Amino acid sequence: MLDSVFLQNTLRLWLVALLTALAVYLVLRLILGITRRQLKRLARRTETWIDDLVAQIPVGTRQWILVLLALFIGSKLLTLPEAVDQWANALAMIAVLYQVGVWGTGMIQSWTARMRGEGAEAGADLTTMQAAAFIGRLLLYTILLLLALDNIPGVEITTLIASLGIGGVAVALAVQNILGDLFASLSIAFDKPFAIGDTIQVGEFVGTVEHVGLKTTRLRNVAGEQLIFSNNDLLQSRIRNFQRMEERRLFFTLGVVFDTPLETLERIPAMIQEVAAGREGLRLDRAHFRGPGPSSLDFEVVCYVLAPEYLRFMDEQQALHLAILRKFQAEGIALAYPTQTIYLAPRGSAAEAGEPASDG
What we know:
Elements (H helix, E strand, L loop, with lengths): L4 E2 L2 E2 H35 L4 H5 L8 H13 L6 H36 L6 H27 L6 H18 L1 H16 L7 E4 L2 E8 L3 E5 L5 E5 H5 L3 E3 L6 E9 L5 H16 L4 E11 L4 E9 L4 H22 L29
Antiparallel strand pairs: 1-2, 3-4, 3-7, 4-5, 5-6, 8-10, 9-10
Helix pairs in contact: 1-3, 3-4, 4-5, 5-7, 9-10
C-alpha cells in the first residue's frame, strides 16, 4: 500500500514529506521561541533602542507562514510538475517577503511609539517622525512588491517597470498639484518651518497647527474655526511662527500734563527703570523723553518680556502698567488726556490785527 503511486509519488514519499514538514515546523517554532527569549533578555540588559526594535521581530512572526514554509520544504522531497514547482517557489518567496514587511512595519511602529514616549508627542519631532515613518513604509512596501512580482512566473519585472515609468509621466502630469502638495509636506517635515502645536500666521489668518497631512495642513484659530491650507500654497506664503519667539517686545508711550515741573520730567525715566527692575520677567531696553505731543509731554518705553507665551506677555504688561501708575500717583504726576485750548480775540481788536477800520 505504501508503494502505491499518487500524483507521481508513492504514498510512502508523501508520508515522509508530511513528517518532514511537521518536523521543520516544530524546529522553526523552537527556534522562534528561543530567539524571542534571548532577545528579550538582551533588551532588558542594555539601554539602547536598537535591540528593543529587534526584539519585536519574533512577536510579529505569523504562524501560518511557518506552516507554509514547512510544507514548502517538505514538498521538495516530492516529484512535482514544473509549473507547480515554480508556483510553490513563488508562493514561498511571497510569504517570506510578506513576513519581512510585517517585521519592518512592526519595527517602524515600535520606533514611533518609543519616540513618542521620549517626549516627541508634539512639535517638530512629531512632524518629522510621522513623515519618516511614512517614507519608510512606502519604500519598504515598494521594494517588497517589486521583489514579489519578480518571483511570479511569467512576469517580466523590467518590462513592467519600463511601462510604469512611461505611464508614471502621464500620471504625474495629471496629478501634479497633488504631487506638489506631497513634496511640500515632506519639505515641512524635514525643513521644519513650523510644527504641530505652533501658533503661526499665514497672510491674515492666525491659528495653531493641529495636523500636517500629505496634502493639507490644518490650523485652529482663536474663534475655534478650522483653517485648511494646501501644503504647496502654504510654503509659497510668508509664515510668521510665533512659537519660535524667545521673548516678546513691549512698546508703549506715556503722556504727562504740560505743567509737570522740569525736575520731575528728568526723574521719570529713572522711575520707569526702577519699576521695571523690580520685575524678574522683564528686561528694560530704554525709557526716554520723546518730546511734546499735541496734548502731552510724551515718554517712550521699550521692554522685553522674557517668555514667548502671549498670556505671560499680557500679565507682565498689566503688572508693569499698574506699577508705573502707582509710582506716578505716589509722586503726584498726572497723566495727560486729549485737550484743546481755544483762544478768542477780544472785541474791537480788528485794528490791532491790521484790518482797516470801518467808516460807519
